[in-house]
Amino acid sequence: MLKKLFYALVCVPLGLVCGGAKATETADAKTAYDFSFTSITGEPLPLSQFKGKPILVVNTASECGFTSQYKELEELWEKYKERGLVVIAVPSNDFGGQEPGSAETIKEFCEVKFGVSFYLTEKYHVKGDEAHPFYKHAREKLGALAAPKWNFHKYLIAPDGQVTDWYASTTSPMDKRVQEKIESLFPG
Length: 188
Prior knowledge:
CATH class: Alpha Beta
CATH architecture: 3-Layer(aba) Sandwich
Order of helices and strands: HEEEHEHEHEEH
Strand order of the largest sheet: 5-4-3-6-7
CATH topology: Glutaredoxin
Strand content: 15-25%
Largest sheet: 5 strands, mixed
């Protein structure tokens, strides 16, 4: 509630003042389904293939103090994948240079160290002008406070493709609030 109030009272007006007539890459995007990543093995990973399912998108890093959240993400994925949850890790080197490895190194690290079986993308920027368009869209939809401030920032996408919520790096993927929100997105 406070995030939405802050966005309505502060972020929207500032966006109008600062944005002017400048068009953004995401101006035509209506939902998260308008975006695509590339998987860590090089295949297209369009979010539209997950229509009707809740999706948790997390920017990750292998050398971060929060890296153990890979285990919790795997646990969350195992708990809810049969009900339709999709988990996507987006490796990024944007915070502290904590994801310096190649796609092969990242993939091997995640699989061997944490048994990751959910989706991994290739490495992307998640902040600033070079951010992946999905991250620009999420910030536009949820406001500046919702932008990643560090590794393991989480966005939750509803089954209709709307970016519905975000969780800070310090919030465990297994946090009760995260699970309750995910459960609320499954059909009755």
